[in-house]
Every structure is written in structure tokens, then in C-alpha cells.
Amino acid sequence: xxxxxxxxxLELLKLFLITLLVLTTMFIIQRLIxxxxxxxxxxxxxxGILKLLFYLxxxxxxxAVPLVSLFAILLSFSRLSEENELVVMxxxxxxxxxxxxxxLTFALIVSVLTAFLAFFLTPGSxxxxxLTRLNLIQTKSEKALPIGQFVQFSKDSQIYIQRKDSSGLxxxxxxxxxxxxxxxxxxxxxxxxxxxxRARIQAPSQISQNWLLLENGxxxxxxxxxELDQFIEFEQAIARxxxxxxxxxxxxxxSRLGATNFFQLIKRLYQSYLIINLANSAESEELHKKWEELxxxxxxxxxxxxxxxxxxxxxxxxxxxxxxxxxxxxxISYILAGIAGFGYYYxxxxxxxxxxxxVLPIELTLYSPxxxxxxxxxxxxxxxxxxxxxxxxxxxxxxxxxxLKARKK
Length: 409
What we know:
By secondary structure, this protein is α+β, with helices and mostly antiparallel strands. It has helices at 3-40, 46-82, 85-91, 96-99, 101-138, 246-257, 262-278, 285-322, 330-356, 362-366, 368-385, 392-408; strands at residues 150-154, 157-165, 168-177, 189-202, 209-223, 230-242. It has twelve helices and six strands.
């Protein structure tokens, strides 16, 4: 790589890393606030929050890396134009095509990174996030439960703890509203309140319940018919805290964990096509399920491939929108970068919605964002290569506004 190409490549890499760092920091702050609020109502400690945050990063990078690469290319060429460096490079005999070689190398690296995230890392991390979340709900820590306030302890139970120490929880209130009593066996129960002097939490790994070992307390069980209300004093008792469908959800996510990478999707696509082709032409429920599964796999594959393709086409937008007259305000570059990046992002979401609602064919819809970037970016790049200014109206407006501002002063 020549010195000039290395200079452009390092400029792109520097802006890419800075922008990605800023977005990552904003993401961490936003998600930490959300996860901390979520954990406070479920008794999850800081270590659990960090585990959840760790599994969210691949999904963030899968979305952010292509857009950040676009910003880096656009802003790099904007700076080169603003400081007349691009003019000097082209005056020395370099064409816009030759100056695009380091950009293409940068785009290839970003595409490989996006492919790894989209095809392998992100799908598995999403499932591990759900599994970790369910495990944290299922196995709470006494240290994580706050004192002095009611918090959700399970699906339909709330707990209040006055104080706690190394010997356990002290002076607690446990409230449950539902069809099953905590200590009693009656199916008519609507509300149960337990007052206990001391308790310890145990969460056996083989069951989908938390067991609360209670000492020295009273249980008030309100039945549908008031004459059947129960008042039970106890020295020791075990409260069953049902976590609902958590175990089933964990099994569901665990079964999907090995079928999320790209090779498994291709295998499922081939198997679905094979079964449909061998099936009887008559309509059947099984055949309908296979068609739906085939549709889901096609959508998943198309979404992931589109994100990789657009990384290769974004340089056309970045160069076409980034080059500008030397005296043009830098604000124009930021505005163009924001419109291009977020405009593409929302257009991609719109195409996904249209595909899911069966408005348009799957592949035509989901590859439309890449096609739009390729066609419009190719036109912009070609105009730049011919020495024309396709965005002259925008820059004329900028000069007019600057002149108007100067006259007011």
C-alpha cells in the first residue's frame, strides 16, 4: 500500500474507531439505566446486569458498524475536501478511482466484520441473552434484593424485606395474588400474605421454582368465600414461588441455540425446499408449516446478506456525499451523514415490515436498501469522477445562508 493510500486508510480507521467508541459509550449508558431499573424490580445484582450487557454488544455492533463506516468515509472525504488535500492529490495525477482503493479495502474489512457478526455471533448472543435473563430471574441472590420496598419476586409474587444480614432476610412480608396459595393447597385462593421473622432463599437448579425457607411467622390465605379464609401460624415453612413458564422458555431458547448460524440456516433452507418438493401437492397443515418455516429462513438469510452487501456499497455514498467545495460549512457534512445513515436505517426497517407482512416478494424487498445505495451512490460517484457537482444546490444554499448571516452582523 502506497503512502497516500495508507494515509487515507488510517484517516478512515481513526474516524471509524472514534465514532464507534462514542456510540458504544452512549449505548452502555442507555442500557445500564434500563437494565438497572429492570434489575431493581427482580432482585438481580450488578454481575447479572453486566452479563446481560455483554450479550447485547454483538447486536449493537451489527447495526452500528455499517452506519459508522458510512460516517467515517463521508466525514473523511469532507475533511480532505475542506483542507484542499483532495485537490492536491488529484492535481498530482491521482484519479478518484485510484483514491478509492483504500476506501474499498476499508469497506472489505468492515464487510467481513459485519458478516461474522450477522452470520455467527449476534444470533447466538441474542439467545444467550434471553437464557441469562431467565436464569437470573430463576436464581435470585439474597444480596441483590433491596430492603425497605416491595419488589417483584416471581411471576405473581412481591416481597418486602426490612433488613438482611449474613444469617438471612429478617422481618419480611410476602404477597401473592393468584389461583395458587403459597403454603396452602387450596385452588380457590385469591390472595396470600405471609409475615415471617426470618427467611433464606434457595433455588435448586433442577426445578423452575425458588424456595423461600421461612421461620416464625403467620400466613393469611384469603379464599373466594370469606368463611374459608385461613390463618396459619408456623415455626418453619417452605413457600413455593412459581416462576411460570420459565423452564419451558429456557428449553425453547436452548433448542434454538445451535440452529442460528449461517450454515444451519442454509441447511434448514435446503431441507424445507426438499420436503416441499417431495410432499403431495394437496394442501395440508404440515405442508403449510414447512412453507412458513421456509419463509422465515429466507427472511433471516436476506436480512443478514443485505447488511453485508450494503457495507460494500456505502463507499459510493460516502465519497459521493463527502466531497464538497473547500469553503463549504462542515455542518453540511454532518447533516448529510445523518440523513444518509438514519435514512437508510429507517428504509431498511420499512422493507423488513413489508416483507413480514407479505406485501412484496421477500428477496426483492429486503435487498432493496442495498440496491438503492448502489444505484444512487454509483450515480453520485460517477458525477464526481467526471468533475461535476451533483449537490450544487445544497452548497449554494449554504453560501447564501452564510452571506445572510454575515450581513446581519
